[in-house]
């Protein structure tokens, strides 16, 4: 009596998990357990380790176990909008992974496993809306990387090994505390190929959020037709992120 009870999430059974498997457009098997109020990684899904895609986004997960390595066929892993403070080293064993979204969590640079650099086939990586104060230079080993989100962190610089990745086409580093305007312009020059990076699909947004995002996109399209003054600093459009348009305060993004 008198002790606060911990938050208890929804229990996922094997039957619920099996019923949550969908067939993706390319014929792959997708296990979608997003928005289900899960607080603990459901061990029962380890029996479904032959799926190609796993979506655990928009839950309340604090930890991903090392047993994630059992999903060796996994090509697509979405963990955005949870309460993750670290990732297991075992995530580096998912050699078929080409999409990894860990946006909107509580990850720090210290708890970002170096083994991420083992994901040689990774094409899209979203690290936005976390607590990163630096980016490991070892991520420069991800030679297949085409898109990366680094927005809304505590970065003061981006390593050249990442900026100069051979296939990188889109990078978003908005709303980081780069030390001065000169350095910000330097970062802008290095990612001048970037226009807009979408890491969620329209179907994943509620009607009001989708309308808000579409309105923002319309505003940006109008701005493209206006010739900027020579003194105006380079800027990049908003990276569309889960649930809402971007806000200055990260905590406003957190799912309660």
UniProtKB/TrEMBL annotation:
Gene3D superfamilies with a match to the protein in the record: Ribonuclease Inhibitor
Originating organism: Mesembrinibis cayennensis
UniProt xrefs under PANTHER family: LEUCINE-RICH REPEAT-CONTAINING PROTEIN 18-LIKE, PTHR48051
Region (Disordered): 237-256
Name of protein: LRC18 protein
Key words, A-Z: Leucine-rich repeat, Repeat
InterPro entries the record matches: Leu-rich_rpt, Leu-rich_rpt_typical-subtyp, LRR_dom_sf, LRR_domain-containing, LRR_R13L4/SHOC2-like
Domain Disease resistance R13L4/SHOC-2-like LRR span(s) in chain numbering: 29-128
GO cellular component: cytoplasm
């Amino acid at each position: 009596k008198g002790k606060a009870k911990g938050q208890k999430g929804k229990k996922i059974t094997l039957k619920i998990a099996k019923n949550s498997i969908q067939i993706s457009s390319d014929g792959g098997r997708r296990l979608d357990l997003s928005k289900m109020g899960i607080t603990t990684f459901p061990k029962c899904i380890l029996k479904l380790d032959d799926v190609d895609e796993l979506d655990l986004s928009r839950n309340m997960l604090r930890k991903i176990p090392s047993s994630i390595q059992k999903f060796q066929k996994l090509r697509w892993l979405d963990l955005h909008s949870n309460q993750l403070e670290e990732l297991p080293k075992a995530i580096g064993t998912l050699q078929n992974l080409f999409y990894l979204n860990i946006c909107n969590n509580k990850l720090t640079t210290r708890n970002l496993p170096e083994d991420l650099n083992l994901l040689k086939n990774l094409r899209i990586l979203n690290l936005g809306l976390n607590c990163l104060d630096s980016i490991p230079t070892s991520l420069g080993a991800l030679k297949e990387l085409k898109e990366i989100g680094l927005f809304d962190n505590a970065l003061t610089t981006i390593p050249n090994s990442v900026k100069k990745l051979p296939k990188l086409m889109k990078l978003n580093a908005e709303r980081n505390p780069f030390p001065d305007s000169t350095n910000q312009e330097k970062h802008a020059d290095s990612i001048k190929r970037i226009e807009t990076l979408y890491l969620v699909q329209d179907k994943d947004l509620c009607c009001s959020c989708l309308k808000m995002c579409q309105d923002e996109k319309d505003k940006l399209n109008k701005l493209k037709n206006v010739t900027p003054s020579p003194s105006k600093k380079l800027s990049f459009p908003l990276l569309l992120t889960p649930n809402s348009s971007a806000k200055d305060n990260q905590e406003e993004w957190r799912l309660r």
